[in-house]
C-alpha cells in the first residue's frame, strides 16, 4: 500500500517518493516552509520535522537560566569536581611530561657532531685505561715536544698492539745506518718504517657507510664505500681491520661500517 504525502495528503507513488524527516513527500511537495523553494536531500535543513532552506532555517535562541540558589549550588559543585579531577590528573602525570623536538637538519647535524665527539672521547679514555698512568704521561710529553716524540715513536711501534704484554717478543736485530755528526750535532738515524700487522686471517668483511678521518696514530682513515677486511671486534664501539683500498691497518669505529 502506497503512503500519503505529508503536505498534500495524496498517494505517493515510488517514482516520485521522497522519504525524509520520518515522512513521505512528493518531489514537488518537498519545498521550504517559508519561500516554497523546491528542496532535495542535499540542500534541505530540518526543523521540527519540517523542511527549510538554508536562508529561512529558524535560528535557535537560548533561554537565560536564573541564578537560583539551587543552580548556584550545582555550579559550585561542578567547579569543585573539575578542580579535584584536574589535581588527580596532575598528580598522575607528574614527572612524566616531555616535549617533542622537531627533527630538523640543524638538530641532525648537532647530533652527528656530538656522536663523533663522544666516539673520540671514548677512544681517548680507552687508550688511557690501556696505557696506564705512565703511558698517559708519555703521551702528554709527546704532545708537548712533537720533534722529540718523532725520534722515539719508531721504537715504541716495534710491538703491535694486539700482542699481550706477557708473551715473549723475539726481534731480529737490524742494522741501522750510522748517524752523521755535523759540528757537535748528531743527526739521528733514519727510522725503519714498520707496518702494523693485521690480526690473523679469517676476519669478517665490512663496508664503510661514512667517511672517517683517523684521530690517533693507531686508527685508520677510510671513505664511504671502502671495503675493510680481516675485521675483528674489540668492544661494542671499536673494531680492528685493514682498509682494502689503502692497505692501512688499525682501529676503526663500529658505527661507521656495516657487515657485507
What does this protein look like?
With 260 residues, the chain is α+β, with helices and mostly antiparallel strands. Helix content is 29%, strand content 17%. It contains 3 helices and 11 strands. The strands form 4 sheets. Strands 10-9-8-7-11 form a 5-stranded antiparallel beta sheet, with no helix packed on it. The protein has a two-stranded antiparallel sheet with strand order 1-2. A hairpin with a 4-residue loop joins strand 8 and strand 9 (238-243). The longest helix has 40 residues, at 105-144. The two termini are 79 Å apart. Residues 146-185 and 189-201 have low confidence and may be disordered.
Any descriptors?
single chain; alpha+beta; 5-stranded antiparallel β-sheet; two-stranded antiparallel ribbon
Strand content: 15-25%
Helix-strand pattern: EEEEHHHEEEEEEE
Helix content: 25-40%
Poorly predicted segments: 146-185, 189-201
User: What number is the mean pLDDT?
Assistant: 75
What spatial form do the alpha-carbon principal axes imply?
elongated
Q: Evaluate the radius of gyration.
A: 43 Å
How many angstroms does the end-to-end distance come to? 79 Å
How would a textbook summarize the main sheet?
A: 5 strands, antiparallel
Strand order of the largest sheet: 10-9-8-7-11
Number of helical segments?
Answer: 3
Alpha-beta classification: alpha+beta
Topology at a glance:
Elements (H helix, E strand, L loop, with lengths): L16 E4 L2 E4 L18 E3 L2 E3 L16 H24 L12 H40 L1 H11 L24 E2 L2 E2 L17 E5 L18 E7 L4 E6 L5 E5 L3 E3 L1
Antiparallel strand pairs: 1-2, 3-4, 5-6, 7-8, 7-11, 8-9, 9-10
Amino acid at each position: 500500500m502506497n503512503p500519503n504525502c505529508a503536505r498534500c495528503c495524496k498517494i505517493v507513488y515510488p517514482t516520485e517518493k521522497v522519504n525524509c524527516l520520518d515522512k513521505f513527500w512528493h518531489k514537488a511537495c518537498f519545498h521550504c516552509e517559508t519561500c516554497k523553494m523546491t528542496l532535495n536531500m542535499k540542500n534541505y535543513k530540518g526543523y521540527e520535522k519540517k523542511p527549510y532552506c538554508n536562508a529561512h532555517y529558524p535560528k535557535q535562541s537560548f533561554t537565560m537560566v536564573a541564578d537560583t540558589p539551587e543552580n548556584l549550588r550545582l555550579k559550585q559543585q561542578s567547579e569543585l569536581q573539575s578542580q579535584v579531577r584536574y589535581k588527580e590528573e596532575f598528580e598522575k602525570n607528574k614527572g612524566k611530561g616531555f616535549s617533542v623536538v622537531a627533527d630538523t637538519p640543524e638538530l641532525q647535524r648537532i647530533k652527528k657532531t656530538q656522536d663523533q665527539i663522544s666516539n673520540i672521547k671514548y677512544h681517548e679514555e680507552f687508550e688511557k685505561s690501556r696505557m696506564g698512568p705512565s703511558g698517559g704521561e708519555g703521551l702528554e710529553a709527546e704532545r708537548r715536544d712533537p720533534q722529540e716524540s718523532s725520534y722515539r715513536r719508531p721504537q715504541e711501534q716495534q710491538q703491535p698492539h694486539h700482542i699481550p704484554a706477557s708473551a715473549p717478543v723475539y726481534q731480529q736485530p737490524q742494522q741501522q745506518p750510522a748517524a752523521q755528526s755535523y759540528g757537535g750535532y748528531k743527526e739521528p738515524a733514519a727510522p725503519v718504517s714498520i707496518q702494523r700487522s693485521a690480526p690473523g686471517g679469517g676476519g669478517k668483511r665490512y663496508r664503510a657507510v661514512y667517511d672517517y678521518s683517523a684521530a690517533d696514530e693507531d686508527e685508520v682513515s677510510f671513505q664511504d664505500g671502502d671495503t675493510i677486511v680481516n675485521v675483528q671486534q674489540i668492544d661494542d664501539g671499536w673494531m680492528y681491520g685493514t682498509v682494502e683500498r689503502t692497505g692501512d691497518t688499525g682501529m676503526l669505529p663500529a658505527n661507521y661500517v656495516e657487515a657485507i
